[in-house]
Amino acid sequence: MMNIDLADALEIASEKKRKKLKYNVQWNRQHRRYDESMNEAINNNNTAVSDSGCLVFPPSINTNDALPVTVSKPTAPTDNDTADEDELFYNDEDINTPLDLNDFSENDEYSTSSQLENIKQRLHPFTDVSLEAFSHEFLHLLRKSNVSKTHAQNYLTLIKNILPEPNSIPKNMIQLYRQLGINENLFTKRIVCQNCLLNISSTNIACPRCGIIIIMSNTSNVASRVIARRQQLRQQETAHQSTGYGNSTAISSSQYHLLFFGDNEERLILPENNIKKFIDDKAIVMIDRKRKIATIEAQGSLSLCQAIRQSKLDELEQIPNIINRDIDNFDVDNGGASDNEQQFDENDEEVNDTYIHSQVLKQQPTTVQRTLNDINDPSTDISVSKRRRTHLKSQLHDKNRPIKRLRPLVHDDDSENEETRSGGTAETTNTGQQLQVNPQAIYSQIDGLFNAMTNTIERRFTHFDKKIERLTQNNFYDHSLDLFREKDETFESTVMYQNEDLLRIRAKDYGDYGRLLLRKLYSKQELAECILPTGHQRYRRPPLDNDRFEYLHKAVATKFRLSNLHYSQFYSKLLRPKLADFLNDERKRQNKEVSMIMITDSNDNSTS
DNA sequence: ACAACTCAGAGGGCTTACAA
DNA sequence: TTGTAAGCCCTCTGAGTTGT
Fold it and tell me: Coiled-coil stretches, from where to where (predicted)?
């Protein structure tokens, strides 16, 4: 019986040994050949990448030979598999598209064709994520998070630095904008006194003219203004498209009209040639291919119309401070934000992104200029905000009365795309669907985004932390041990054990030193059978002799100048895990050694 | 009493250093 | 260039401890 068990054990052990060796050999072959191929491919211009982003080796390299085992092709990294991002396997089905590994970000000027080619690029050879997708996602995130240009640049630099080389991420935000076809500065940050509209320096804590203290974080105010501004942009775009605003004749018009739309209580400023017909004090305009009748409240220059609109809004808003309270009340009244509303906000931003980043810039320069001015114009911003608040305030008194929105006019060719982008949510108003803006939904959405970002960043930092810790632990001269040191602490010059100075043992780091000490202080059998002191009764293995282990503590602390105060922490956090692993591995080694000896003996016996 | 948490052992897999 | 050994990391499991 005993012999049968022993034979089985030996067979299992030898099988494991063979398996292990086979695996190691296969692994080394794969990675060596892969590394060579990678280097060669990257160094040569004839490297290619498939549609899925995988490197394709030059014809001289037989990928089948290089990779005896076909494994899964790389996919876009997810949050859960970041630890496996270094695993790079290539499937031989990915042999197609040429890869342009030239770092286009080096060049500031691009031709249109080269831009298109670059946009189709992957972020780097080891991912399926395209540069275009990343750029859009990144810009979207920056906008959602209200990240400043400076910080955006910092994030971009960080991402570029941590990605594998070569990668196609632009070096700065300007290049990233250009890569997306955005050649204008879309947003200039200004601090404006809400009371007198005076530009205020960022160093001021109060408006120099009216003395109002600047409050840096009026969240509800900001959220309301963002929503209102979006709507204003959309309406302007609608008006532009529906009335042929983009053509040169429209731009050349110097006569503007301030129009009031009674159906949704909105005010728009339109050039004269965008108005289809005048009937007394009414104007007929085409919006969304529908005739809309508006009351002309003013006519003249653009600035005049803006001023009058502002005054109209000021009249409506006699007590500015009531607005925030009203919005809060509105929040309470509409406490349960519907999914549709949240979905609208998301889609609304999507559409606006597209609008700002692509459509606007494709219009003629003067139109672009004007649209951008509108975006950056604080007066527009504030006036829209007030209009929006007034609108909300009116909603308080009649919650059943819907806020109608003007749907952006889309051409026939684009109508389907527009529907797709809007996702068929409350944002589409073909059927006059009603829309209510609930700031609570905005806040919850912002919170959700913030939490998601925080979680992602935390995971990344944890990952980096582990890597960094691992690197620093391997560095003998690193400063991480400084945490466990105290100034002016004296140490003995020798730690004698059996007439041998343990400090004279050379090691590359404290882990190595600890292992060497264990080998010095204990026999192989002890290392194979025992666990670290102080063991517990519940462990079947006995602890190593504690008296000798004290020599180890003393030698390590002395050699690395570790303070008595912090040594226990150093030991438990840094050294102990290494020694525990060492004992574990030592057991593995000795078991393997024994099994090999037994196999050899049994083979000798069988042959004799 | 039970769940949640902590700690240590064990095993498998991956990386790196080194020698043949 | 290749194979091997050692170290390290990760995960699972079991047992004890702690808090409710």
Answer: none
